């Protein structure tokens, strides 16, 4: 394995010499964050998995690209979990699933298996559908068949097609033969058609009524239909029910399905898609949604399910299938949340809603920011600035993420503390006050407070950038530059990003997109007559 400066691809699974960008392979104990360590583990596992899924067994044609990339994505988490069980990495896989759901909710998405008829079409399918949706439906199928049956059948598939080619139907045949389940019939609905369903469930006179329809983020009505592996639990994880939902709508007697009726108290909650194993969204009626809010407040749901309820509600809100009030009321139920993956999603959704509010209701922007800060206040105080003896891998990840969030939202105490720690770092690059896990947060705070006229922190940060040889540190600093809210400084940052000092051109787009004020600066690029095409050619593929 070799790391190559400014390598065009992220990594490449060449048989005999796997190549990587520097940040995808190299880890520095003193200056690399735990997030980078985790990323290196996942990327290396992904590329090595493709020695089997891609090199030993090669897809028959580009239509079946997901047999390479979907399996490598899924196996990268399997391998990381086996090597580092303390990371609880499968809960973080939900971010992969969410990215697949987000892209596949667009009308312009495509099926996992898509016909490729021209070389120009190939690059178009190296996206979250092939990688993340592919991995997610594999996880869903493994959950449905059971881990042991799935592994035996997968080994048979690899052995049967070693040093040869395979197509999706070959995988289904091996899994169907090993499990006795109708795998081909089930999975064809997930790989040959675009999109995924939202399953709506409501209570009607002690009956549970299920409906499915294609989810589209625009709020439009889709026409797809799936065979959905439904899992649900009732009041606890001891009461579970699984069945295949094969029609547009079904009605089940609650007592027959779950063994007892739904009581009026909040303890009789129902959660569909247990541990978010399925690639679909769920919409609950008001009664069931209220019971789930109670279960979330009391942390009766698993972290994966707390993640799922929030993510589905946000997606439904954006599609105008739930109200913003419903979303905000639900978010308030997470005030005492302590799980990293759930909080990471809560932070992400807060930032997205804040960006929408900035455009739609700018007069209320400060109220939205304060609400989100209040929701996350407990977690921020619990995690603090400094590592604690015996803390978990997730705590280290959370510290950097939640402090970065507070810095971006202009939290005064966070900005002040960050300034002190940055000054200590400038005086002593080995100070324990600025460990790698919080550097991004501190750099964001420095840029957040800088202006065209008050620029000492910004200049000092550029000096750190120019002095470091560590690619990860350069990327951290470049990413923080998108935090400026001063239009004049933004123009200066844009020119710096387009200079010969910066080889990672992709970060420019983060700088433009992630703060609405940057739109003003973006429109000025043309008048500055910047030769963007030369920069694209210089940095192409990075």
UniProtKB/TrEMBL annotation:
Residues covered by the ERAP1-like C-terminal domain: 269-505
Protein name: Alpha-aminoacylpeptide hydrolase
InterPro entries assigned to the protein according to its UniProt record, in alphabetical order: ERAP1-like_C_dom, M1_APN-typ, Peptidase_M1, Peptidase_M1_aminopeptidases, Peptidase_M1_dom, Peptidase_M4/M1_CTD_sf
Cofactor(s) recorded in Swiss-Prot or TrEMBL: Zn(2+)
Textual note on the cofactor: Binds 1 zinc ion per subunit.
Cell compartments where the protein resides: Microsome membrane
Membership in a protein family: Belongs to the peptidase M1 family.
One Pfam family named in its UniProt record: ERAP1_C
């Amino acid at each position: 394995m070799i790391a190559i400066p400014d390598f065009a691809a992220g990594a490449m699974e060449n048989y005999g010499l796997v190549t990587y960008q520097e940040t995808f392979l190299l880890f520095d104990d003193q200056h690399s964050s735990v997030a980078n360590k985790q990323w290196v583990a996942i990327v290396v596992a992904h590329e090595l998995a493709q020695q089997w899924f891609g090199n030993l067994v090669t897809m028959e044609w580009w239509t079946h690209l997901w047999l390479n990339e979907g399996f490598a994505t899924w196996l990268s988490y399997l391998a990381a979990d086996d090597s580092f069980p303390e990371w609880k990495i499968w809960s973080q896989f939900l971010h992969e699933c969410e990215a697949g759901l987000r892209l596949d909710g667009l009308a312009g998405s495509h099926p996992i298996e898509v016909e490729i008829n021209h070389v120009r079409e190939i690059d178009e399918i190296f996206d979250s559908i092939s990688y993340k949706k592919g991995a997610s439906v594999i996880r869903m199928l493994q959950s449905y068949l059971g881990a042991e049956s799935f592994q035996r059948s997968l080994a048979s598939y690899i052995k049967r097609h070693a040093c040869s080619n395979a197509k999706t139907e070959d995988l289904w045949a091996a899994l169907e033969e090993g499990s006795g389940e109708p795998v081909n019939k089930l999975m064809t609905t997930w790989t040959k058609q675009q999109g995924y369903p939202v399953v709506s469930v409501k209570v009607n006179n002690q009956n549970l009524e299920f409906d499915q329809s294609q989810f589209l983020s625009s709020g439009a009505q889709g026409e797809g239909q799936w065979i959905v592996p439904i899992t649900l639990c009732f009041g606890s994880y001891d009461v579970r029910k699984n069945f295949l939902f094969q029609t547009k709508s079904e009605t089940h007697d609650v007592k027959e399905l779950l063994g007892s009726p739904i009581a009026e108290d909040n303890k009789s909650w129902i959660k569909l898609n247990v541990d978010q194993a399925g690639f679909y969204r769920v919409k609950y009626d008001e009664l069931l949604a209220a019971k789930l809010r109670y279960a979330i407040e009391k942390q009766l749901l698993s972290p994966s399910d707390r993640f799922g309820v929030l993510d589905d509600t946000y997606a439904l809100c954006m599609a105008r299938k739930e109200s913003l009030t419903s979303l905000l009321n639900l978010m308030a139920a997470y005030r005492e949340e302590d799980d990293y993956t759930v909080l990471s999603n809560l932070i992400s959704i807060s930032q997205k809603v804040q960006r929408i509010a900035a455009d739609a209701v700018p007069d209320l922007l400060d109220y939205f920011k304060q609400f989100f800060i209040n929701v996350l206040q407990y977690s921020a105080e619990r995690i603090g600035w400094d590592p604690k003896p015996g803390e978990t891998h997730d705590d280290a990840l959370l510290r950097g993420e939640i402090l970065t969030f507070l810095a971006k939202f202009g939290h005064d105490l966070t900005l002040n503390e960050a300034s002190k720690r940055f000054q200590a770092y400038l005086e002593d690059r080995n100070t324990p006050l600025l460990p790698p896990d919080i550097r991004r947060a501190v750099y964001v705070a420095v840029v957040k407070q800088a202006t065209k006229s008050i620029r000492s922190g910004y200049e000092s940060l550029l000096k750190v950038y120019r002095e470091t040889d560590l690619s990860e540190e350069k990327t951290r600093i470049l990413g923080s530059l998108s935090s400026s809210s001063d239009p004049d400084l933004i123009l200066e940052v844009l020119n710096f990003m387009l200079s010969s000092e910066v080889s990672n051109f992709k970060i420019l787009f983060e700088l433009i997109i992630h703060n609405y004020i940057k739109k003003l600066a973006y429109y000025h690029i043309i008048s500055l007559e910047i030769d963007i095409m030369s920069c694209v050619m210089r940095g192409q593929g990075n």
